[in-house]
Every structure is written in structure tokens, then in C-alpha cells.
Amino acid sequence: MKIGFIGAGNMGGAILKGYAPFAERNGDKIFVYDKKEEVRSGLEEAFPAVTACGRETELVEKSDIVILGVKPNLFETLLPEIADVCTTDQLIISMAAGIRISLIEGYLGADKKIIRIMPNTPAQVGEAMTAICRNGNVGEDDFGHALAIFNSIGRAMEVEESLLHCVIGVSGSSPAYTYMYIEALIKAAQANGMEASKARVFAAQAVLGAAKMVLESDLSAEQLRINVCSPGGTTIEAVNCLFENGFEEKVQEGFQAAVDKSKSMTK
């Protein structure tokens, strides 16, 4: 497969870097265009499977799958530029928050195969969570190619487009909330005498292990939490303190703020 990335910033770059080793093993070719020449050349030098392109249209003409990684406010400029070189055989994948499939169809044509995704930045370490939705032109074979790309950098699941606002709250933006939690643990450990480098590892590994247990256990997250809390022990003391201070409610409020912002941005 020939896979093109238009835009290689935080998210597009994370997906490209995560997928590049798989592409090399699989014999896929990756094309990249970014407005910053140093980004293009840097990716070309770093990954044997990557070839830089000088224009967006050049990339589209060379690619079987085109992944649009530019910011949402650039779509109304980008889509008319590439419309004439997009074909009905290609798969167009957008990761822009707030840009509906119907808007992309309006520029590229209702006959085009269009997928919309909502990934997150852990793609760069092979642990992304990506939501995928598609229009009616995308058959199972094409959808299978998209799933293969995003499953190679973590996990991918199909959802209805109407759920992408929710996805932003639960996985698209939530790494930032998790970093805040880890940062708070690190600061608390330092305040109790642990050096920052060790606190970083202790806190991050604890979060990684807890997340893995949620994914691999048949128990609910609630039951896993209960199982750790021995009566009269240290964990129940901490959990009760967090409950009393509205920990769950504050996380849910942050989640909802991301969802509401996504809805307000939608075109």
C-alpha cells in the first residue's frame, strides 16, 4: 500500500512514526507532506519507508490512502486544492476534530471513500486508541486496510460518527488528564522525599499496570478498585479522601468540557 500523510504535526506525526516500522516490515510506502520542510526531510531521513513530497497534490496522486492531519481551520483551503486529483479508488482519512464526513464529501464529492478517525498521541509509542467511522462508499476491504493501520499503533474500533464527540472526551483528550494525574503523584512523592526520576517511574508504571488490568480483566473498573481497598488500609483512606473532594465529578466535568467544545467546533 502507498499511504500519504498531509500534515505531520503532533497527531499526524505520532501516527506516522508509530506506523513507519510496520510499513517497513510490510513493504508499504509512506509519503509525507508538511508545510515545514525540516519536518518533511527529518521524517524522510529517520524512516526508510518515508518519502517526502513537495506539494499536497503530488502526495495525493501517489497514494492509495491519504491521511489528512492538518488543523480543522485549514480544511476549507486544503480540500479544494486536492479535489481534482482525488479519485474514487482512494481512501481519504480525516482526523480533524469537528469536521464532519458530509463537509468533506461536499468538497471532494459524495462518491469518494471517506473515513473519519479520532486517535490520540500515544500512537507514537504504539498504544493509541483510535475511533473510526466511515461513509457508505467504504467497503469491508478498504475498511480493513484502515483498521490494520490503526491497530498497528494500538487499538482501533468502529463507532457511529455521532459518537465522536464522546470519543474526544474519553480517549482523544484524556491522555492530558492522565498526565495531570501522574504529575500530581510525582509531586506528592517528591514532597515525601523521593527523587523526581524515581517518582516518575513509580507513578507511570502504576498507571500503566492499572490500565492493563482494566483491559485484561473481566471485572469492572469499580470492582478492581474495590478489590484494592482493604478495610482500614492505606488505599481506602486515599480513595475516601478523593471521593470526598469530588475526584470523579471533576474528571467527568473535564470530560464534558471537551465534548461540549467538540460540538461547538463541528462543521
How would you name the CATH homologous superfamily of the largest domain?
NAD(P)-binding Rossmann-like Domain
What is the average per-residue confidence, as pLDDT, rounded to a whole number?
A: 95
Assign an overall shape.
elongated
CATH fold group of the largest domain: Rossmann fold
Main beta sheet, described? 8 strands, mixed
How many strands appear in the DSSP assignment?
A: 8
Total separate domains: 2
Strand content: 5-15%
CATH class of the largest domain: Alpha Beta
Our measurement of the CA-to-CA distance between the termini, rounded to an integer number of angstroms, reads: 31 Å
Which second-level CATH architecture of the largest domain applies?
A: 3-Layer(aba) Sandwich
* Helical content band: 55-70%
Question: Structural class from helices and strands?
Answer: alpha/beta
What is the strand arrangement across the widest sheet? 3-2-1-4-5-6-7-8
Order of helices and strands: EHEHEHEHEHEEHEHHHHHH
Number of helices: 12
Radius of gyration: 21 Å
Uncertain runs are none
